[in-house]
Amino acid sequence: MKADGSDVDKALSKQNKPKTVFDMLDQMLPEIQKALPNTEMTRDRFARIYTTAIRMNKKLAKCTWISLIGGMMQSAALGLEINTLLGQCYLIPFWNSNQSVFEAQLTIGYQGLSELCYRSGFYAMITTKEIYENDFFEFEYGDKSILKHKPLFGKPRGNLIGCYAKYTTMQGFSDFHVMSIEEIIEHAKKYSKSWDKEKKCFKKFSAWDIAFPSMCMKTPLRKLLKNARKTPDIETALIADSNVNNGLVENENFQIMPRIDIELQKENEKETEPSDQPEKKGAFDKKAIEFNRNQLKELLESEFIFPDEKEKGLAWLENNPDSKILEKLTEKNDTVEKKIEGRKNKANG
């Protein structure tokens, strides 16, 4: 789903100018709601995940708002979680030396591609595996294709030598693609901007640096899906990921990034260059705490929350100091939201 540019411009107009990235997120929630597909991901859960991602990587807060909103709307439209243990997608800050700014770029993980494949209803199974030198592995392409993999159990499996991806459709047809570790790395060197040509290694904190096995498994999966049956969401994810690998923001087939007032952008990005100065202690977390406090208050106003639960929740907010509350707040939000969803489903069922 594409973001409507006029709606985004209105949401971030100078009249309602956001002062922080959390203010921006709060104003963008109506647009996020429009972009989210019909999955288990709710608007409030997406907002909390996004807030946590920025809190855990403070360079994201220094990224241009155009790039942050672009990544946010892309992941929202696909219904994929950013920077969580699910490994569906990663929002990563890159330093743009030409513009002297940090830019956030969305990278899709192999779990994210797999999730989109399962949602399509086309595939009964999607498999991605690592191959180690002491495993038994045999494959052959052609009319009588063969794929046999027996991982060594109970003993050291040795070094990673390759990865493969395989799918089986709902009709029983299957296909696979195998790549050696040398082929995977050569592919990354050629297409990924994470590769540092001068240092001849992957850039620190890039997706290839922090999630190397996952990125290795994604490469044959992308190759496999190239000629497979795809939904628009799968195609969108492949194009978005390809754009990141090639250092592109958008192309003629993928223009999900909304327009934003450039003067507003510049006004709010006066300190985007790298700095060795420590950030003011507590200032960053304070905004995240305030955002999550407001989210919890809104949830407690739901008709599906009993009066005594609301009273206890508000009392909990009042009695917990900000310095110790952030992680507990996100847990509380998830608990209350799940309770509301469960009672909604029960009432509708």
Relevant terms:
13 helices; globular; alpha+beta; 349 residues; 9 strands
Structure description:
There is one protein chain. 47% of the residues lie in helices and 16% in strands. The protein is α+β, with helices and mostly antiparallel strands and 349 residues long. The protein has three domains: 1-108 and 232-277, no CATH class; 123-228, no CATH class; 280-349, no CATH class. The strands form four sheets. Strands 3-6-7 form a three-stranded antiparallel β-sheet. It has a two-stranded antiparallel sheet with strand order 1-2. A two-stranded antiparallel sheet has the order 4-5. The protein is globular, with a radius of gyration of 22 Å.
What's the β-strand tally?
Answer: 9
Strand proportion:
15-25%
- Share of residues in helices: 40-55%
Find the structural class using helix and strand composition: alpha+beta
Instruction: Give the C-alpha Rg.
Output: 22 Å
Q: What distance lies between the first and last C-alpha atoms, to the nearest angstrom? A: 29 Å
Ranges with pLDDT <50 over ≥5 residues? Answer: 1-6, 246-284
Major sheet: order of its strands? 3-6-7
Largest sheet: 3 strands, antiparallel
What characteristic shape results from the CA principal axes? globular
Tally of separate domains: 3
Mean pLDDT: 76
The ordered string of helix (H) and strand (E) elements is: HHHHEEHEEEEEHEEHHHHHHH
How many helices in DSSP terms?
13
